[in-house]
Amino acid sequence: MSSHKINLLDFSNPSIRTLHITWFAFFLSFVVWFSHAPLKPLIIEAFNMTEAQWKALLILNVALTIPARIAIGILVDKYGPRITYSSLLFVSGLLCLGFATAQTYEQLALFRFLLGFVGAGFVIGIRLVGEWFPARQVGLAEGIYGGWGNFGSAAAAFLLPFLAISVFGGIGGWRYAIACTGIIAMIYSLFFYWRARNTPKGSTYFKPKKSGGLEVSSKRDFWIYIAMNIPMYAILAVLAWKLSPTNIGLLSATTTNLLYGFLVVLFVFQFSQIYRVNKDMLKNGAPEHDKYKFKQVAILNWSYFVTFGSELAVVSMLPAFFLETFTQLTLVQAGMLGSAFAFMNLVARPGGGWISDRFGRRKTMSIFIAGLAIGYMVMSQITGTWPVVGAVIAVMCCSFFVQGGEGAVFAMVPLIKRRMTGQIAGMAGAYGNVGGVTFLTIYSFVDTTAFFMLISACAAAVFVLVQFLEEPKGHMVEMAEDGSLQKIELT
Questions:
Q1: Which of the chain's ends, N or C, has fewer CB atoms near its CB within 10 Å?
Q2: For 8-198, which CATH superfamily applies?
C-alpha cells in the first residue's frame, strides 16, 4: 500500500480515530452555522420579516467569522485543539439555543451575529489533523477533514426542513429543529474533550513564544504581514456599510460610524500586538532555525480568497441563477441543481489534498487555480439556450477545481511553521470569508456574466502569484519547552 494512502476504516489506528472525531466536530459546526438557511420561509413567517431583514441576517452570519478565525488561530496555538474545539462547540450550542428561543428580530439578529464565531471551528481541526499525520499524508487528511466537514451545510439543508415540518410540525417547528442542532453540538463537545488528544503519544505540542500575532522572520515580512491585515478590516467596513441606512438599513448612521471608528481602533490595537510579538526580531533579527518566508502565507491567503471565497459567493447565488436562466425549472429543481456545487466537497477537497501530497504543492495548486479560472470563464457563457445537463456539468467541473484548490491550500498550511499552524490557518480561512463578501458585493453591482468573468480574472492573477510559492523541502525546526530543537520532516 502506498504511504500516501489513508485507510479510513482502520479504527485501531489512533490517527484515523482522531481524523473521524475531528471532521465530525467540523461537520457539526457547519450544521449549527447554517441551520437557519434552509428554514427561511418558516422563520420569515414567524417574525413577519422583510426580505431586507433576512438578507441582513445572512450578512450578520458571516461578519464575525473573519476576526473569529484570527482569534481562534491564536487560541488553538496557545491552548491546544482539544480544549479550544470543545469550548467552541459548547458555547455555540448555547448561542444556537438562544437563536431558537428568540422572541424579537433584534434578538434573532444578535444571536445570528454571535453564531458567526462557530465558523472559526475549521481552523482548530487544521492544527489538530496536522499534528496527527505526516507530511506525505497531511494533504489528504486535511482534505477529508475540510471536505466532509463542509458537507454539514448541505446536511442541514436536507435534514432540518424535514425535522421542522414532519417531526415537530406546527408554526414553531423550526425552533425545535434548530435547538436540536445546538443540543447535539453541546453533547458532542463533551465527547470530543473526552476522546481527542492534541498530539500522538510521545509527541510535543509546540506553542508560539508569544501570543497576539504571527512571528515573522524579517522586517520586510513584518510590513507585508501588516499590509495583509488591511483587506480584512476593509471588508468588515463593507459589511457595516451594507447594513447602514444607505443600504439595508439595519444600523443607524451613528452606529455605522461608530463601527467604522471601532475598526480603526481594532486595527491599531492589532498592529501594537503584532509589533509586541516581533519587537525582538525587528531589533536583533530571527534565529536561523526559526526563519520562514511569510510570502508563503500571503500566497496561500490569496489562493483561499479566490477558491473558498468564490465558493461562498457562488453557492449563495447559484439556485437563483439556474431558476432565472432556465425558466422551465421549478424552485425545488433549481435548488437541487445549485447544491451540486457544494456536493463536490465530498470528493474534490480530499482529492486536491491527495494530489498535492503525491505530485507537489506548487504544481497542484497551479493546476487547480488555472482550472478554476477556465471553469468560471465557461460558466460566464451559460445561457438559456444551453441544455440544462450541459450547464450542470460545467458547474460541477468548475466546482471540482475550486474545492480541489481549497484542499491544495490546506495541504501546505501545516508545512510552513508547526507552532503557528493555527494562526496561519486562521488567516487563510479569514481570507476565504473576505473573498466571499468581496465577490457577493461585486455580484450586487453586476450581472452574472460579468460576475463569473471577474472571478476568473482574479483567479488568473492568483495563478501568477502561485508561481512564487516555494515547495516545502527537507524539514522545519521547532524548539521544545525544554529548549531542545526538534526536526519535523516536510516530505
A1: N
A2: MFS general substrate transporter like domains (1.20.1250.20)
